[in-house]
Amino acid sequence: MKKYPYITDPDGHDLRNLTTAELARKHKVAYNTAKKWKEAEGLPTTRAPRIDLATVQYYLDHDVPIKQIAQILDVNVNTLYAKMYKHGMYNPRKKHLREKRKSEVRELYAAGNTIRQITETTGIPRSTVSRWLI
Q1: pLDDT over 50 (residue 1)
Q2: Measured between alpha carbons, how far is 47 from 79 in angstroms, rounded to an integer?
Q3: Which of 18, 37, 100, 115 could make an S-S bridge to 22, C-beta 3.0–4.6 Å?
């Protein structure tokens, strides 16, 4: 019998692909306990990959949405927001980017597009587009 049987759950599912934190939450134990289990099994215990801030800035400069950046980097959206906040990077909620989007909406509307078309083109909610055009 294994000394650390918690690498599989009672249903027999393999938990090797879980991060150490996920394993700890699943079994309601301390992070260090789960880390010791993984070390005993010879599994990697490294934390999530580091976020390359230069890559994030590149995507932000090219107007890629935060959710999409998080998917590309394979990190949680909230983790990405926290990292950006910590390093003073801008995000879509900042005023200068909002003003840029407002002017884009106004230009599309002036070009004869309907609110629905603007919503579909930009991905901005219809209520926001309407509020910006008033």
Answers
A1: no
A2: 13
A3: 18
Tokens linked to 114 = 């309907």
Residues 6+ apart with CB under 8 A from 72: 59, 64
Query: What does the buried/exposed string (b/e) look like for 45-75 if buried means 16 or more CB atoms within 10 Å of the residue's CB?
Result: beeeeebeeeebeebbeeeeebeebbeebeb
Write out pLDDT tens, residues 62-90.
878 888 888 888 888 888 888 888 887 75
Q: Specify the pLDDT at position 117.
A: 92
Two structure tokens written together for 10: 């009672």
Encoded tokens for 73: 């980097």
Q: Contacts from 90-93 at CB under 8 Å and sequence distance 24+? A: 90/60, 91/60, 91/66, 92/65, 92/66
φ/ψ of 48, rounded to 5, equals: -60, 155
